[in-house]
Amino acid sequence: MQNPCRASLGKLASASGFGKAAIAILLIAASGCALADSPAPRADVFVETGTTTAGEATANGLRGTERVDFILGRMAIEEKLGQLNQMAGGRQIALNSRITDAEYDRVRAGGVCSYLHVAGAEFLGGIQRVAVEESRHGIPLLFAMDVVHGYRTIFPVPLGIAATFDTADAERAARVAAVEASGAGLHWTFAPMLDIARDARWGCIVEGAGEEPFLGSAMARAQVRGYQGADLTRADTIIATAKHFGAYGAGTGGCDYDSADISERTLMDVYLPPFHAAAEEGAGSFMVAFNDIGGVPTTANKALVHDLLRGKWDYDGLVVSDWNAVLELVNHGVAETRAGAGALALLASVDMEMTSGIYAADMLAAVEASPALQAALDASARRVLMAKDRLGLFDDPYAYSDPAREAAVMLTPDHRAAARRVAERSMVLLRNDAGLLPLKPEPGKVAVIGALAGDARSMIGSWKAQGREEDVITVVDALRTRLGEAHVVYEPGAGTRDPADPAAIARAVAAAEAADVVILVTGEDYNLSGEARSRSDIGLPAPQQVLAKAVLATGKPVVTILMTGRPLDLGPLDREGAAILVAWFPGIEAGPAVANVLFGDVAPAGRLPASFPRRTGQSPIFIGHYPTGRPANEDLSKDSARYMDIPITPAYAFGHGLSYAAFEYDNLQLSAETLAPGGTLTISADITNTSQADADEVVQLYVRDPVAQVARPQQELRGFARVSIEAGKTKRVAFTLRPEQFAYFAPSGQFEADAGRIDFGIGAGSADIRLTGQFRITAPLIADGPAAALATPVSIMEE
Ligand code: BGC
């Protein structure tokens, strides 16, 4: 069989009529493409043709920093600036659409480093060939896209993935995404999003792991591993981007792009730990946030990016701006001119500029005049070239250009199975008062109600990459398949935008009345959460409220499936007797996953990664609050830190999620009463499944430091384990802690843990603590970094 890579590249070469030398290089490069795992010996060809600097460096046997410095030493300032330039090669909905002839010329001239919103192994292989063979230095391009929860095989949205409370699920989803995206010619994804989101009004909450930094850090590590694999030079790995570095999730009032006016302590202890974890895990790139912290836009925040990330954290990966954000420094009011904005960003060590084109177009004179800018430029260009080197692109620029691989890896049965499994495991049973769930195998006549039940587009969420509606099995499709058409009546009733139509509501009510059980699929559509989708009211959209009230008024047994990208104010849904399953936006396997959970093939065990407020006005509400001098008190006659018109607790707290099984927690043991610097302490407990059903339990460890130099949060997660336990069986779960895990950003400006008591609780949720205890830290210590970024080893033993 002919080598597909060679065939496609050969086609490209002849189509564009290149001379013999170019074709010779192509063929050699193509054989390298076929042998992605064992770089081909092509150095002699570069010597023969001697065409590019990169070729010469490689031919001379240079690798890594030596090769990069060789190339860098031969580049003009304009060319270095070109290496900091990322351009939109298309739009999210029209990939590659901006790659015009002028772009090929820009590539030839070395004026661009990277394109985003592009895809396609063959197409990208074509433009890569121009970069490698027709530009002076032969530096390969980087192709990037927001592959956030799948490329073609779409998994649940990231908030749903976090709800699995299982890092293996997060890693698997990222791995599948990387295999498909790299097959489509991409080297780089703008994921994972690591912003802590304590305010459910914030639209981007859907893109991250929720409110809690320990969970966020664990998910960060897992996703970086999934995207990048163990060896970035492999052709099925892509560079991950830890984004949006800073405090993007802390925008005032939960409003996207807005200022984060937070304390240094909250920044260090809460918002930065997932980034610290990602840096330690080797994330190849970071993206800086659009917003400012206390008036300093992160894109120009030298203290944060240059001094902390580069300096203290020793991060040498590639830092990219967000879309147009360098130019937006002018809107922020910290720069007057384009070149001024560019200088601020470059000096902050933002290496690559996404789309505003200032570095490449406006900064030559400034750089020529400034040794500081020249040094910053050299450092940034070096990091960019090193990223390409780490991907193996100087050795095999066409490793990602194989259309046959692209076709073979897309939407495979394995990938679909993984998406279904993660979707099933992401679902959170909020309540099940009357035991309506699981449904009987033959539930009688089922009315499926709500336009979202058939809304394939919403099921794949806002960052759908190359996900397609036709790949989605919707909830209504899956229920029809499972129960037979004759047993399922589907009435959309109402959508999420247009005012409810009384006639359609009446049809939904009639269907409910004629049914034995109603499955009401309600919530947000995909376009109500995500970037620039902050909402001042996180109740159900108005037409869905009308529908829900009408259906609930029938008095029929109603199971609610909640599709959403954020915690919602559940309004009328949250009533006595309710059964509510949060399905998030579950991905292409939405229908089968929902059906499997509804009918008990899979017992739900997802947990909330962010608290659900009772009403929007209770936002932000999260477990990591500092205690006050007058802690919230249920007794309204006491003056305490609370709203007077609402109970003091959230509707559903972080970590909440029910099961079809029941679990008992017992036999709490500590390996010691004290924890000394340099030592460890193990906390363990027996978890018994006392029910008739096999199921998973998510065992959670929370801690609290009751007396410290500054107030410490009321609850902090410090361990979790999703454990499968058969009916009637017991497993022992053990968490091992180090004293560094109690360090916090102290008044000294260092991370310190104090000597003294630590309280802890183990349970099924932050508001469902079953066992409590305490131990003492014997002596104070100074730690290297934020406590929440540290992982807690967990062991699980059969009893
Ligand atoms: C978002 C980023 C995203 C970028 C490129 C921006 O608007 O904030 O998260 O990676 O666009 O699509």
Write up this protein.
- 32% of the residues lie in helices and 18% in strands.
- A 6-stranded mixed β-sheet has the order 11-16-15-14-12-13, sandwiched between helices.
- It has 799 residues and is of the alpha/beta class.
- The radius of gyration is 27 Å and the shape is globular.
- Helix 25 (542-552) links the parallel strand 14 and strand 15 (558-563).
- Residues 1-49 have low confidence and may be disordered.
- Bound molecules: beta-D-glucopyranose.
What are its keywords?
globular; 799 residues; 26 helices; alpha/beta; binds beta-D-glucopyranose; 18% strand
Topology (elements, then pairings):
Layout: H1 4-15, H2 20-34, H3 43-49, H4 53-59, H5 64-72, H6 77-82, E1 85-88, H7 101-108, E2 114-116, H8 121-134, E3 142-145, H9 158-163, H10 167-183, E4 188-189, H11 213-228, E5 241-245, H12 264-271, H13 273-280, E6 285-288, E7 292-293, E8 296-297, H14 302-312, E9 318-320, H15 328-332, H16 338-347, E10 353-354, H17 358-362, H18 364-369, H19 371-390, H20 403-409, H21 413-426, E11 428-432, E12 446-449, H22 456-459, H23 475-483, E13 488-491, H24 502-513, E14 517-523, H25 542-552, E15 558-563, E16 579-582, H26 590-598, E17 663-670, E18 674-675, E19 681-689, E20 695-704, E21 716-725, E22 730-737, E23 744-745, E24 751-753, E25 756-765, E26 768-777, E27 781-783, E28 794-798
Bound molecules: beta-D-glucopyranose (BGC).
